[in-house]
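Entry 12.
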Amino acid sequence: MTERIETDVLVIGSGPTGLTAANLLADYGVSVTLIERNPGSGDEPRAISATDETLRVMQRLGVMDVLAPEMLMDTGARYFGRGGKVIADVRPGAARLGQPGKSQFDQPVMEGALYEAAATRAAIDLHYATEAIRITEQQDSVTVSARRHGERTTGHNGALAGDQGLDTTIAADAPTHDLEITAQWVLACDGGKSFTRRELGVKLIGSTQVERWIVVDLLDVPGTPEPFASFHANGERPAVVVPGVKGRRRYEFMLFDHEDGEAMITPEVIAELVAPYQDISKVTVRRAAVYTAHQRVAESYRQGRILLAGDAAHLMPPFAGQGLNAGIRDAAGAAWRIAAHIKGAGTEALLDDYQLERRPHAAQMVKLSKLIGSVVMNTNPVITRLRDVIVPATRIVPPLNRWLTQMRFLKQPHYLNGTVYSDVSGVPPLAAELLGRSLPQPTVRVADSEHALDELLGTGWAWVDVAGHRKLVIETESGERTAAEDTAGVFEHAAGTVLLVRPDGYVAAVVPTLQRARALEGLAAKLPGLFAGAKLGN
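Predicted 3D structure (C-alpha cells):
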C-alpha cells in the first residue's frame, strides 16, 4: 500500500545544502519532509573549505559548537611556482561577518552536525533510504512519488557510523515501499546528477570540458597543521595540499588525459604521488578517488513550485573553494522565501528573485574557479614562467597586490537586483554600500553582556536603526526592541540611517531613519504586509 504524506516543503537530498535548508525551513515555522536515497548522512570527505558566510549560517543553526573543534579556522593559501618557489601568500581580509573568512572543515562532520540538528527539530520528518522516482506538478502543489528500500529509517550520522558499527549498506533484496508526498514546494538538493533536474528537463549551460583530479584523504598525520592550503603549481603535475585538524590532510593531483583513473589510485601509485610531500607509510589513507570537475550552471533554478539548489543547480571546479559555499547560499536564499510564500507573506515575484539573485553569482564563481585553475594549475611552460614573474611583480603595485593577496577577487554576493529596495537617496555613500550585501556581524554590548549581532536579529526580518554615537536599536518582526552598543564602530558610517535586514542576513534597504515606510512600500509587491501594524519612523 502506498503511504501518503502531506507537508509544506519537500527537500530532496540530505547533503549539506539539503540539511541546511531543512533546518532553516523548520526554524521559519513550516513543516518539512526530507528524503534521501542513502541510509544516512554522508561519510565521504568531499568539500573542504568553508567561508565566513557559510559558518554564519552554521552559527544560526546552532551547530558551531560541534563544528569549530573539528575545523582549522582562519586559513589562507600559499602558491608555489616552478622549482618550488613561493609566488604568493593569500589570506582573506579582515573578518566582517563574525566568522573567519576561510576555514578548513571535514564534510562528514558538517553533514553529521546538520543531521543531528535536523533530527531534533520536530517540524522535520526524515526519510532515508528513500529515492524520488516521479514528479507531478499541480497548480498549487507538487506530488513526488518515492520508493523506500528496506524498513522505515530516519537515518544516522554518517560521520559516526563506523565508530558505532552501523551497517550502512542497503541490501539488494530489501523490500520496497512506495510513498506519495504532496508538498506546497519542493527544494531539490539532490546533487550534480540530480534526478529532479533531469526529470524537469532543465539543461546545464556551460563548458562540457571536464578535468580529472586524484583526491587522497589521509588520517593520523602527525604534527601541527599549517594555517594555509598549499598550491603547488609546478608546471609538471600540479598538486594541492589542504591541512586539517586531528591528523587530517588532503592531497589533490592533476590527472592527465592519457592516464587510467583506476590505475592511478592504487596504494603504490598514491604513495609515489605523495612522496615529494610526506611519507605515508605510517598514516591511514582514508580515501583515494578520481574527482571530475565540471563547469556548468542550470539554465533555470525554478520550474513552477520546484527550486534547484546546490550541485543540482551548479557544478564548478574546486580551485576557488566555492562549490559547497554556493550551495549553502542557495539554501539560505531559498528557505526564507519558500516559508514566506507558505505563510501568505510573500508573492510569486519573491520566489522569482531566488534565481535572479543566486544564478548570476553562482555563474561568476564557476568562471572564477575555472580561471584560477587555468592560471595556477597550468602545465604550459611559457604560461607558467610568465605567471611566476607576473604574480610576484604585483608587489610594486600595492592596490593590485592587495586585490590578489587579500582574495578580493573572490567577490561576495552583492544583490542590487532582487529582493532589495534600491533607492538610497538621502543616505551617506558609505552607508549605501551596505545595500544588497550580507550585514556585518560585530560583537555588540547589551547592558553588561556581549552578543554576536545575529543573536539579536532573530530568524525573521529586522530593522537595525543606526542612531549615532555607536548606538543601535534592533527591532524584530515580533516587535521586540533591543538597544545595543556597536563597540567597534562598525556602523559609524551609517549613522542616521535604518537598515532593513532579511532573514538570510542580507540588507534589503538602507533609508534615512524616519523613512521606514518608504522602504516597505518599495517592497510591497513582493512582501505585502511586512511589518504590518508596526509603528514606523523612529
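Annotation: The chain has a mean pLDDT of 92. Residues 348-376 form the longest helix (29 residues).
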